[in-house]
Amino acid sequence: LFAFLLTLFPAGRGTPGKLVGLAAAVVGAAVLGGCTPSKAKQPVPGDADAGVSTITRHACGSCHQIPGVQAANGLVGPPLGGVAARVYLAGHLLNTPDNMLLWLRNPQAVFPGNAMPDMGLSDKEARDVAAYLYTLR
Amino acid sequence: MQRSILSRRFIIGWAAGILSSAAVAIGLAVWMIFGGGFDASASKQHLRPVAWASHTAMRNWVKKQAKDVRPPESFTQAHVKAGAREYEQRCIACHGGPAVPRAKWASGMIPTPPYLIDTSRHWSAAELYVIVHDGIKMTAMPAWGELEPDDNLWNVVAFLEALPGMSSDEFARMRAEVSAPSPVNPGGGSDLVSSAPFTR
């Protein structure tokens, strides 16, 4: 965002341009600063945007309806809209961040033979997916 | 005489509009075809509008092709089991099953092959046959009609139709049955995935 603002107001065009650039930098910093506290409030330290591509890559949408993920219209497992506010995961685990990560990484260890396969998500992938799922209120 | 709507200025403006639109379109096409502007990788998704357009085009193409396809009157358990054997050998690596993950490398493909547990709730038997028979361009779905007799393809369709009515335990049992060494499949198991990840 900062770089984009700078390109709008290239420096070297005299003092007014520089002032505008400076103002843009201040605004940019303020916006970035504003983002940081909300990230700290996330229940899981992950990258929600990366989570969307991990969800796509692992075909989660062929079994779940997932708002914001293309062609995620599966009818096998529960729809994931509102999962951030749901009380139980898989009907048994309390919906805590730790349980979410456990379930995402190793569902067959939780309930052997349940329909959800172990997808082989790495720790980071699981955190990213959880970070996205916790945006679905 | 009244001033015509086709005044000189209008025609010049119109022509200029057409020409500049054409120039932009040609420029974009040249950039995409010759300038490396089209992302042909399997590591990133299409842009959203491109993904939507190609997926919708694929769906409508399948529906149109399926109009001329006559599925068998009914499928028997023998068809389902024969289809399970095909599925075990040719499909499970990319498409997985209830409680059974895809092969690790399937997540390296975008568009990524879907799990098919509910696929018969989304597609008719004729449509599934078209997809299995002809494959899907620019995905990794092969045209199995080039490789296998029609009966085998219909068996796979029978299996896909039975899949939503099958528990993961039943699926596991059927896998074990069709993986056992037989005259048809002396080695047993799939030629694509090394071992059954499902254990109880």
Please describe the topology of this protein:
The complex is a heterodimer of chains A (137) and B (200).
Chain A (H helix, E strand, L loop, with lengths): L1 H7 L6 H26 L7 H10 L30 E2 L3 E2 L2 H9 L1 H4 L12 H11 L4
Antiparallel strand pairs in A: 1-2
Chain B lengths: L7 H26 L14 H19 L10 H19 L23 H4 L2 H10 L15 H13 L5 H12 L21
Notes on the protein architecture:
The complex is a heterodimer of chains A (137) and B (200). Helices cover 49% and strands 3% of the residues of chain A. By secondary structure, chain A is mostly helical. In chain A, strand 1 and strand 2 form a beta hairpin. In chain A, helix 3 packs across helix 6. Chain A is globular and about 30 Å long. The two termini of chain A are 27 Å apart. The termini of chain B are far apart. In chain B, helix 2 crosses helix 5, helix 3 packs across helix 7 and helix 5 crosses helix 6. Chain B has seven helices and no strands. Chain B is elongated, with a radius of gyration of 24 Å. At the A-B interface, helix 3 of A face helix 2, helix 4 and helix 7 of B.
What's the quick description here?
The complex is a heterodimer of chains A (137) and B (200). Chain A contains six helices and two strands; from the N terminus they run αααββααα.
Overall mean pLDDT of chain B: 90
What overall geometry of chain B do the principal axes of the alpha carbons give?
elongated
Roughly what percent helix of chain B? 40-55%
Strand content bin of chain A: under 5%
Alpha carbon gyration radius of chain B: 24 Å
State the helicity of chain A in percent bands. Answer: 40-55%
Major sheet of chain A: order of its strands? 1-2
SS-based class of chain A: mainly alpha
**In terms of quaternary structure, what is this?**
heterodimer
Secondary-structure element series of chain B:
HHHHHHH
Strand content of chain B: under 5%
What is the helix/strand order of chain A? HHHEEHHH
- Note the main sheet of chain A: 2 strands, antiparallel
How many strand elements of chain B? 0
Mean pLDDT of chain A: 80
